[in-house]
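Late entry, zinc ion complex.
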Amino acid sequence: MINRREFLKAGMATVPLVYRRDPLDLVAAENAGQVPSGTLVEHDPGIPWQRKLRRIGQTNFTEHDPAVFDIEGWADYWASAKVGAVFISVTGILAFYPSQVPFHRHGKYLNGRDFLGELYTAAKKRGLRTIARYSPDLNWGDALAAHPDWFMRDQQGQPQPTQDDPYLFQTCMFSTYMTDYFPAVMREVISRYDVDAHYSNGWPSFSLPVCYCNICRQLPPPKTPAYWDKFNERVTYLWKLYNSIAQEKKAESFYFLNMGGGIHSTPNLAELGETCHWFQADNQGRGGQDEPIWGAAQQGRVCNAVLDGKMATNVTAGWSTGPIRWREVTKTPAETQTWFDQSLASGMVPYYHIVGGETGLGEDLRWKKIGRDYFNWAARHDEHFVNKSTIANIGVVIGQRTQLFYKAPHGVSMQQNMDAMYYALLEGRFLFDFIHEDRLQLERLRKYSALILPNIALLSDEQCGQLHEYVEQGGSLLATFETSMYTNANERREDFGLADVFGIHLAGEMIGRRGNSNPYLARIERQHPMLNGFADTHWLPGAEYRLPLAPVENPILTVIPGYVAYPPEMSYPSTPRMTEPAVVVSVRGKSRLAYFPGDIEATMWLSGHTDLSLLLQNTIRWVAGDTVPVTIEGKGLIEAFAWETEPGFAVHVLNYTNPNAHRGWVREFYQIGEQKVQFRLPAERRVTRVELLRAERDIPFYAAGDSVEFTIPSVDSYEVAALHSA
Ligand SMILES: [Zn+2]
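Prediction complete; structure with ligand written out below:
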């Protein structure tokens, strides 16, 4: 092992630094012969360049752009928006430079021009970093004729054109397209331009590929955990290959891909979180369909679950997103703004994206002011958006295998199931982090007093063991419905994998609501903090589906079986009481444990019943215990984040009180009033100043012991209380 000075003395001073923080860089550099095998280069005292970027801009070029594009105007705009980097399209589908790589088709309007080179020069002139953007997902009929093995096939062996263009075909990620064609394009770019990093769009796809080419026929069946393992192996293999190519001439360069798609992403996020230098989430926005407002913030939580503080960006579309989309028309400014707000609040770097340079030439200029104003505001407060770690006492497990392979008995997707629990967490104003199922090691869980498992059906024996260990160490758990009923290979167990942890046993087949009938009711048998706020009733709504459990001692809620809804004459429970529990609660040492056998959060999502939300909130509050790091009291539906930052701490409040909270887009904002914050400081820390970043003024605060209290007078769309700390 040699240190940096010795390394430089050894005559290799021209080799740029490789970061010890990312050992894969070193592996790649070694593979590329840039450093002797086994060399460990001293860590650069500075942080990697990409983590200094605070804002990103992208104009997504069209084939027509080389004919009409205003390159200087483009570069001026992004510089005026104070971005640190721009994405420049190389593509792979259409070359924006005179590519010599066979089948890298030149656009109709390119005419031999080095459009990419001109863009690159204009960006560099303004001190902007440049990211080469590729699309390895599609190619044309001439490539298909020459290389039929490059392309995806359906079960009849036919190639698969894209939905929109019958002349563009989907390439197969297991084919040599990815190891021959794409590396050739990357190497050509590296030989011509000194770009800072390389990014591929469009791959892997947001749903697991289903391909019947000759290679894929040898793989396990599509949409199975066994296939997913092969898929992940291939993604990681290609990522490392492209990363090593990116570093052939420039060790501080790297490759990254699109990891968006939130909690139902296709690649294993825990694995890619280790590999990546930059988590790019292409989660651009919603439209006029039923989709909750928190899409970008939730994406940020997914990034935080796997990144350990590495760079994450979320793309915000200035164009009109949704089921009906207009790529070149600006969308409602309020919706764009809420996506920026959520990106910052959840710890990501905001990224503004528009399509087609013609929009910059006067056809629709409305997007310009939205991005520039917001980014210029954010730039005034950069230091408060550089986060060190989250402040949260609750962890919510996001089961990626459950998202991909579990089939719920009702029509609710697992995304909606998670959104339902998310809604309860927001209504209860809890501070929480997401935790990936493959990152349940005890050392990662210690900061959380409780974990929530919202129907995390697929859990391996090892993961169940880790949760068991967490409870042994004093951690608390809340789980619902089929949590741990399946192995990681999606095989059903005889009994819960977490049976011993919760003291529960399965006592029969799943019971669902029949036809038009009422679901079961839950009878209140005795008082408990989870029932706070339920006066004047013995009955609460049950869930639509449940797993019948063996009786437990001294139950809090029991099941009253479902019964006829129509006619009303017959609408009464014929069995008014059973011993079957509707919740199982226990206390073991410091651990508090609660398990609901019903699909309570999914039923809440479908019915909108506030009793179910209140029951969940009360139970979360009970399992999480009395030590709460931050409380925010006030009216309104908000999402909150708290961070330890470079200058101190920051409390972010996103105002979702809006008629369009559950259906895009936000049309305007509805201000909420006073939010009273109580912030518990870590030992030895004190606060010297509380500054509101949106209002851009200081507010008074009251400090006593380890706690700081202040009131945010009102919140329009978003407010950040920055706590300057000594
Ligand atoms: Zn294939």
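The radius of gyration is 27 Å. Will revisit in the morning.
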